[in-house]
Amino acid sequence: MTIPPDFARDVAAVHDSTDRLLVSLGKLDDDAVGEPSLLPGWTRGHVLAHLARNADALVNLLNWARTGVPTPMYASAAARDEDIERGADRPLKVHLEDLGESAARFDAAARALPENRRAYEVEMRNGVVERADRLALRRLAEVELHHVDLGVGYTVEQLPDDFVDSELDFLTGIKFARHPGLTALELHADDGRRWRTGGGGSTDGASAGPVVVSGSARHLVGWLTGRADGGLLDTHGAPLPVIPPL
Q1: Of 118, 111, 120, 124, nearest in space to 80 by CA
Q2: What is the model's pTM?
Q3: β-strand 129-131 against 121-123: which pairing, if any?
Q4: Tens digit of pLDDT for each residue in 66-94?
């Protein structure tokens, strides 16, 4: 990541993002919770159950960083999936209560993390190692992107500027850096910023040089995260590369 995390700022951003999510959800009803989300195979209820349990999973990691006692995000992959499935069909009121209470637990755990423990490294699911001071950014991405996935009128165009900037740094500098399944990319934002990523063994012409993809920072994030098809981006005559799943 090119910009060091500002933990206090990021925790506050999670709080504000969650508030926006809850406002959107207040416009729904029980029937809407059972309708399909924009994620294949998941209803809105699945997305909401996942968001609540993800908050608690990150609390586990924050407590690990604070105490030094290893605590996994989830008891197991199967337990994670079962919790989501079990919670998906609950009434909207129960989802709202769960989201609010789990968000409060995350906020409390984040604020309890001492400054001298923020560089402590913990292990996320699938073996990914992360610094404790980046866990708020991880939560922010969950809330912002899944808010889009709910299909309630919140779109990539509404993603906050600070989130877009931090997510582009994460995606290009960490997630897809030297990714074996992604051709070399040079991303050009409309404001003049540039990023390079991918190129870790792709088979679709990376040896000829990076594919230049231009557009707004929001549309770049939408494409890289699978929340937009890239139709508003310019590849300067080259085919638009396929982005590996997050």
Answers
A1: 124
A2: 0.94
A3: antiparallel
A4: 999 999 999 999 999 999 999 999 999 99
Both structure tokens of 89: 């069909």
pLDDT, one tens digit per residue, over 148-196 is 999 999 999 999 999 999 999 999 999 999 999 999 999 999 999 999 9
Average pLDDT, the chain: 94
For residue 41, give every residue at least 6 positions away whose Cβ sits within 8 Å of its Cβ, in sequence order, or none: none
> What's the helix, strand, coil split of the chain in %, to 5?
55, 10, 35
Collapsing DSSP states into helix, strand and coil, what is residue 111?
A: helix
DSSP state, 208?
G
- Residues 6+ away with beta carbon under 8 Å from 226: 243, 245, 246
**DSSP letters spanning 124-180:** -GGG-EEEGGGHHHHHHHHHHHHHHHTTSS--GGGS-HHHHHHHHHHIIIIISBT-T
Contact between residue 185 and residue 213 where contact means Cβ atoms under 8 Å apart: yes
